[in-house]
Design a protein that fits this description.
The chain is α/β, with parallel strands linked by helices. It folds into three domains: 3-99 and 201-260, Adenylosuccinate Synthetase, Chain A, domain 1, CATH 3.40.440.10; 103-195, Adenylosuccinate Synthetase, subunit A, domain 2 (Orthogonal Bundle); 264-421, Adenylosuccinate Synthetase, subunit A, domain 3 (Adenylosuccinate Synthetase, Chain A, domain 3). Helices cover 32% and strands 20% of the residues. It contains twelve helices and 20 strands. The chain has helices at residues 16-24, 76-88, 107-120, 132-140, 153-173, 181-195, 202-211, 246-250, 283-291, 310-320, 359-363, 390-403, and strands spanning 3-8, 29-32, 41-45, 48-52, 65-68, 73-74, 95-99, 103-104, 199-200, 216-219, 259-265, 268-270, 304-306, 308-309, 324-328, 339-347, 350-352, 366-372, 407-411, 419-421. The strands form five sheets. Strands 9-7-5-2-10-1-11-15-19-20 form a ten-stranded mixed beta sheet, sandwiched between helices. Strands 14, 16, 17 and 18 form a four-stranded mixed beta sheet that branches. A two-stranded antiparallel ribbon has the order 3-4. Helix 3 (107-120) packs across helix 4 (132-140). The two termini are 18 Å apart. The structure holds inosinic acid (IMP). Inosinic acid binds next to helix 4.
Length: 424
């Protein structure tokens, strides 16, 4: 089992960064295959907290090759900022490879992200305003700039002129400032020069790693419920975090992707707008939010909080072919007054156990719960499954029973050492 995908099995922020970091210890390569700096992967070790946005989570180990693959959208200015921050925290030796085919997030994408959101008024998605959607739209509209273009001054000039002809027109129509070719051209050629040593054909490199039977971790960003195809459209991100997008986003054929680990919280959270059937607004939400430090890594927004929804979790497992689960932030539930798990929904009087395709139907879904016994013991120092309180074990067993997927890891705190391997 050399090639493992780590995929968010909820609406993002599940703790994938911690699991990637934990499993990266035994990996040769860590690959981000989609998304951009809308992600926020928080990693804590040696008492220090690191927040990564577009840089892969293997960056802390000098022996790991970190790949930002072709499926990503990359803001070079922001990526350089992340690297500078890592340097200032003492992380100075690392291996980084950036795909020459990855799309570049340009400043006009950020301007348009904000403008589209304002135009939607009450129906705004609540994007991270990092330009993700407009950058992916340009990629599919074939007016995107790619990282490799920044290394070739003549070719980049041509691509940028083509893009600006369309984008400036659009910006003007929206009453926004247009962009000057010369200054954008110079600025982005500069980023190309600075990042040159990292930019390469990562699909070639990754297929060589496959031949060598290297251990490769594919690090998903966001979660399956935010997938452009299978999520709660239109309240989704503009890429697919599901395992199915690994081959396209990296250039490695599907037959070489061995296994999928789904990462979920012991409860549910969501940032941004969109239906969230198990959302809580009571003291219970406050309890979970404060104990789980549920504030966005990228935007600082308080996350919406709810009981665990196994309909959504089973959907993610199905779509993404998840083999086993890692249940994160389990310690947060210690001491909670009332604990429930959503087993299915009722839509217009009918019991359903799937995600409807339209938001108008999804908004009408009423969650149906099973009550679970609570536990008061703190479990942050628990080192093995056997040492967990009986009621905590019952909770984990219920998840396995309802979702039909075994739990492999349980996280009881932010540090690497606070990770229980269930089989052990
Ligand atoms: P975008 O990806 O910035 O276009 O935002 C689209 C939706 O995805 C919004 O609801 C965001 O809050 C959400 N989103 C994007 N990235 C993340 C993430 O890393 N964690 C959680 N939600 C995210």
């Amino acid at each position: 089992m050399s090639r493992l995908t780590i995929v968010g099995a909820q609406w993002g922020d599940e703790g994938k960064g911690k699991m990637t970091d934990y499993l990266a210890q035994n990996s040769d390569v860590v690959v981000r295959y989609q998304g951009g700096n809308n992600a926020g992967h928080t990693i804590t070790f040696n008492g220090q907290k690191y927040a990564l946005q577009s840089i892969p989570s293997g960056i802390f180990s000098p022996k790991i090759k970190n790949v930002m693959a072709n499926g990503m959208v990359i803001n070079p200015k922001a990526a350089l900022g992340e690297l500078e921050k890592l340097h200032s925290m003492g992380i100075t030796y690392y291996q980084l490879f950036i795909s020459d085919r990855a799309s570049v997030i340009m400043p006009y994408h950020l301007a348009l992200d904000g403008a589209y959101e304002s135009l939607k008024g009450g129906n705004m998605i609540g994007t991270t305003k990092k330009g993700i959607g407009p950058a992916y739209a340009d990629k599919y509209n074939r007016i995107g700039i790619r990282m490799g273009d920044l290394l070739n001054p003549d070719y980049f000039a041509e691509r940028l002129k083509d893009a600006l002809a369309v984008k400036n027109m659009e910006l003007k129509m929206l009453g926004l400032d247009t962009f000057d070719f010369e200054s954008l051209y110079e600025e982005y050629l500069g980023y190309g020069r600075t990042l040159k040593s990292y930019i390469c054909d990562t699909a070639l490199m990754l297929n060589e790693e496959v031949k060598k039977d290297s251990k490769i971790l594919f690090e998903g960003a966001q979660g399956v419920m935010l997938c452009i195809e299978h999520g709660t459209y239109p309240f989704v991100t503009s890429s697919s975090p599901a395992t199915v997008s690994v081959p396209l986003g990296t250039g490695i054929p599907p037959k070489y992707i061995d296994r999928s680990l789904g990462v979920c919280k012991a409860y549910n959270t969501r940032v941004g707008a969109g239906a969230f059937p198990t959302e809580l607004e009571s003291d219970l939400a406050h309890y979970i939010r404060e104990r789980g430090r549920e504030y966005g890594t990228v935007t600082g927004r308080p996350r919406r909080v709810g009981y665990l929804d196994t309909v959504a979790l089973a959907h993610a497992c199905r779509i993404s072919g998840i083999d086993t689960l890692a249940v994160m932030l389990f310690d947060v539930l210690s001491g909670i007054k009332e604990l429930k798990i959503c087993t299915h929904y009722v839509l217009d009087g009918k019991k359903i156990d799937y995600i409807p395709s339209t938001i108008s139907d999804y908004e009408r879904c009423e969650p149906v719960y099973v009550d679970m016994p609570v536990w008061n013991e703190e479990i942050t120092t628990c080192k093995s499954y056997d040492k967990l309180p009986e009621n905590a074990k019952k909770y984990l067993k219920k998840i396995e029973e309802l979702v039909g997927t075994p739990i492999e890891y349980v996280s009881v705190g932010p540090d690497r050492v606070q990770t229980i391997e269930v089989k052990k």
